[in-house]
Amino acid sequence: MEGEVLKGHMDMIVLSALSRGPAHGYAIIEEIRSRSGGSFDLPEGTIYPALHRLESAGLLSSAWTTSETGRRRRTYKVTAAGRRALTQQKDMWRQFAAAMDGLIGKVADVPGA
Amino acid sequence: MSLAPDRITLYLASFDRHLRLDPWARRRVLAEIEDHLREAEASGGERGPESFFGDQQGLARDLTLAWLERRYASLKVFLAIAAIVTASAMFAIKSLLGGAPSGGAHAPVDAVIQSFDRGSGLVALLLVGAAFLTVRTRPFELTRVNLFTKLAGIAALLLGTSVIGEAATIALRLPSATLPRLLLIAAFLLAETVAVSTALGMWGLTRRIVAGLR
Q1: Its pTM surpasses 0.90
Q2: What is the ipTM metric for this complex?
Q3: Where along chain B do its domains lie?
Q4: N or C end of chain A: smaller count of CB under 10 Å?
Q5: What is the DSSP letter of B105?
Q6: How far apart are CA B157 and CA B154, in angstroms?
Q7: How many CB pairs under 8 A join A and B?
Q8: Which of A29, A30, A42, A52 should be substituted to probe chain B, the one whose Cβ sees the most B Cβ atoms within 10 Å?
Q9: Which residues of chain B are within 8 Å of residue A50 when distances are taken between CB atoms?
Q10: How many domains does chain A have?
Q11: CA end-to-end span of chain B, whole Å?
Q12: How many CA atoms lie within 13 A of B49 on its CB side?
């Protein structure tokens, strides 16, 4: 799927990827790739601005941790406000998807469409 | 073929040249990007850093924008605090010094300093109001953030001038003030100084980021 299409839904994608537990940037991208069955292949350059923006909005928090190789890394987790925002965004998305399903269905039903 | 460490180092050095962030944010961003590239390398990635993150300038701009949002939000908070603390301290100090005469010989100097102090304080408060009005409808539009930062800078400098004027006024009246009052005045003056210095510091960081985006 095109990166530009995904950019519009970046907040929900990142919050969803982190909803199962804390992770660092690389692991978040891998999680998104794996949970979307490879459809969401996000450019790495889009993830860090989104993470920093979500953190400043109070939807994520972050802390330095140490990897198995001893490298310092920034690990992110969803805050309580982030969980509430994710629930709201999921509801909106489901409404949108249901409406779009109805619309596409109706267009497909029109003879000659 | 795996990613050679020197390619990562070169990419980071070039990326760093485009980053216009405060030192703390810059270190954090560079550490995160390096960790990502090293992990990709350890996982057997064959792509170069550019294929992950694109050109350094574009990535630096996106990250700078994300950090501007953070610093700008902090600037708004600290500027509002500085304005409230300075205005409150100004009134409190005025009432604490109310009965203390400045002394005959210093009276004209005192009057000039007081007018200067109050004038700059008042203009600063008006500028703070104007700055917040400019971003009332569109809180994060770059042109408006730029204007907010300029107005905030002038306002913070004027608040600082007002605090210095206040300190001079207090100094002229020191001999006639009692110790308990002096301690209270010192506490208010300290609170003003801390609040205004923090606002000025945050303004400096925000201005640097805005300048990097132009």
Answers
A1: no
A2: 0.79
A3: 5-54, 70-213
A4: C
A5: T
A6: 5
A7: 60
A8: A52
A9: 66
A10: 1
A11: 39
A12: 21
